[in-house]
Design goal:
Blueprint (H helix, E strand, L loop, with lengths): L1 H7 L8 H18 L7 H6 L4 H18 L4 H25 L4 H23 L21 H8 L6 H33 L3 H7 L3
Helix pairs in contact: 2-8, 4-5, 5-6, 5-7, 6-8
Length: 206
């Protein structure tokens, strides 16, 4: 049991009480703000992705550009738009967890990765319809397809676009929910098992 707790909540320097309170307020606010993403349909999300879509889009385009500059195969260049969109926050989560031993920071970044995956789901589901607007202003139908029309066609899975999109959306929402639970559990663990920095300082007479 101790080993499991050590994996979920790696030890690090205790934070002051105000920091934990601010972290809890932020996490609850993020949960409230994220509520729509657990109820909105994939179709509606495609037309109204929300403000985070702009953040995902910057990383998405970098995911295309970097492999292209490195001379990667076309399929990898196309895939890494969505791929980096999800992998980048996972990398940051790993840095928080491994380097900083900060489970709370890792949980917030895990939420980011889940949200990024959810942002991809409508475009997977649109692979045949090609109706959603793209960066250039037109639809996939108007500019001869988009990433997931190419990818699913290449993998002979174009007919499963709706099913794959729904599966990605479900996995994304489960990831976001797991991130919230991890973040809340981390704050509770810190409060109950770690002395506050203020208390520890006071006890040493500093």
């Amino acid at each position: 049991m101790h080993r499991i707790l050590g994996l979920l909540f790696p030890a690090y320097t205790p934070r002051p009480a105000w920091n934990r309170i601010a972290s809890a307020v932020f996490l609850v606010a993020l949960m409230v703000w994220s509520a729509r993403y657990f109820t909105i349909s994939i179709d509606d999300l495609g037309w109204d992705p929300g403000v985070m879509h702009g953040v995902h889009l910057v990383i998405h385009e970098a995911g295309h550009a970097i492999p292209m500059m490195l001379g990667a195969p076309q399929t990898l260049v196309v895939f890494m738009g969505s791929g980096l969109q999800v992998l980048f926050p996972l990398f940051i989560a790993g840095a928080f967890y491994v380097k900083n031993r900060d489970a709370y920071g890792a949980a917030v970044c895990l939420w980011w990765a889940g949200h990024a995956a959810l942002d991809v789901a409508p475009y997977i589901s649109d692979a045949r319809a090609l109706e959603l607007p793209l960066l250039g202003g037109g639809t996939g139908r108007e500019i001869e397809g988009h990433d997931w029309e190419y990818l699913l066609g290449h993998w002979n899975a174009l007919g499963s676009d709706l099913r794959i999109g729904a599966a990605v959306a479900l996995a994304a929402r489960l990831t976001m929910a797991a991130a919230f639970l991890w973040g809340l559990a981390t704050l509770a663990y810190e409060t109950w098992f770690f002395p506050a920095e203020d208390d520890a300082t006071r006890g040493t007479g500093l």
